[in-house]
Design a protein that fits this description.
Length: 394
């Protein structure tokens, strides 16, 4: 062992969850060290969704990392659901008494958090290999990692697993210490990022007999489109032309006619999965974000559920260090899971409402159609959709 360092909170994972927690704690005088397996460039190279709840945006401002989000992010007061050749608008602002969402790419948000860490002199160790938490069920946990031939150790009071679905943190909990809940959907999303003017200033979620489609955006000149594809498909099966032809088929005539296409600058397929682990704490290891739960992207909950975990954990750790009050830490898993499951339910419902399920029976088909018909026939049903989409209270 070449070096040992001490800190208060050891964070595994330099994605949005780990960085946001590190920044918020730093501003309250609590020390952290973030260990990230990849380089900063690699982390910022990942294209991810970008619809932020108002609660998340407020946390970014509290973390002193919200300026560019407020400058360049787009406030969206509504979105559309397209089906049967028509588009119907969900007026989020009117249905929720004024709440809206911000469309701002996760990549940009993560970049802002890195710059926030730099400004405050935060410690983020990149290219940390073989990261491993130890003694997590004791009062003196520590994390080891390797950089090249150097091995190092970080002694801390708490270890936070913000290392995503494939991270080491959840894996380090004994099997009998946790329970997992999962649903895997029989399709994926083929996403394309294209330097072309978005077809609509607001998002369009489309239900079609050929499958789901989504028209989203990153800026007035950068479009983000998705179509539902079988899990057996690969990116090579889809030329840009084939992608845009299929996308147009799934959209109402006026939208597909207005669509301006451009070469794809990113193209990838993501499987759809719902996943939750319980509890989100094991000893002095706390899980947050994708390390503990995954949602299909249909409800735009992934990043926002991660943010509510961080909100609860941040306040719990501040109470621990400033007031020696551990009630927040003791209630973290219960509080986080209560909101996580509501995000799970909403994401599953949006996915079930808008996708084509190959094995759906005629009865299921009718239920799906009726769910959509009921939605646009009831202000209360629309209000329920809207309050979930803008973000339920923390
Ligand atoms: N050691 C150190 N870092 C690791 C390890 C490891 N063993 N395994 C993974 N990581 C890093 C990844 O490289 C990644 O940068 O942990 C980070 C996890 O980041 P995310 O996967 O983005 O998870 P999170 O920060 O919780 O953000 C959740 O990301 O995937 C989206 O839809 C999801 O929007 C949600 C958001
Ligand atoms: C995106 O912009 O990538 C996006 C937006 C909304 C979603 C999913 C993805 O529900």
């Amino acid at each position: 062992m070449s070096s040992a360092t001490k800190t208060q909170v050891g964070i595994i994972g330099g994605g949005p969850s780990g960085l946001l927690l590190s920044q918020l704690l730093h501003l309250r005088g609590i020390e952290t060290i973030v260990l990230e397996k990849h380089s900063r460039e690699y982390v910022l190279g990942r294209i991810r969704a970008g619809v932020l709840e108002h609660g998340f945006a407020a946390l970014m401002r509290e973390a002193q990392a919200g300026d560019r989000m407020d400058r360049e992010g787009q406030i969206h007061e509504g979105f559309y659901i397209a089906h049967d050749g028509i588009r119907q608008r969900v007026d989020l602002k009117a249905l929720t008494g004024g709440n809206t969402v911000i469309v701002y790419g996760q990549t940009e948000l993560t970049r802002d958090l890195y710059e926030g860490r730099d400004r405050l002199g935060g410690v983020v160790i990149h290219n940390a290999e073989d990261v491993q938490p130890h003694d997590i069920d004791t009062s003196r946990p520590y994390v080891t990692y390797r950089q090249g031939d150097e091995t190092a150790r970080i002694d801390c009071n708490f270890v936070i697993g913000c290392d995503g679905f494939h991270g080491v943190s959840r894996q380090s909990i004994p099997k009998d210490g946790i329970r997992t809940f999962e649903r895997v959907y029989p399709f994926g999303w083929l996403g394309v990022l294209s330097r072309a003017r978005p077809v609509s200033p607001e998002l369009i979620y489309a239900k079609h007999e050929r499958g789901f489609a989504l028209c989203s955006l990153r800026s007035p000149t950068l479009s983000r489109y998705y179509i539902q594809v079988p899990l057996t498909d690969t990116v090579d099966d889809w030329s840009d032309e084939q992608f845009f032809d299929e996308l147009r088929r799934r959209l109402p005539g006026d939208v597909s006619e207005a669509m301006i296409t451009g070469p794809s600058i990113e193209k990838s397929i993501a499987p759809l999965r719902s996943f939750v682990v319980e509890p989100m704490r094991y000893g002095n290891l706390f899980l947050a974000g994708d390390a503990a739960h995954i949602v299909p992207p249909t409800g735009a909950r992934g990043l926002n559920s991660a943010a509510s975990d961080i909100y609860y954990l941040y306040h719990a750790l501040v109470d621990h260090y400033t007031k020696r009050d551990d009630s927040g830490l003791e209630n973290y898993s219960r509080r986080a899971l209560t909101r996580v499951w509501k995000g799970q339910r909403f994401s599953w419902w949006m996915t079930t409402l808008l996708h084509r399920f190959p094995d759906n029976s005629p009865f299921d088909q009718r239920l799906q159609e009726t769910d959509l018909a009921y939605l646009f026939s009831s202000q209360r049903a629309l209000a329920s959709l809207a309050e979930n989409y803008v973000g339920l209270p923390f």
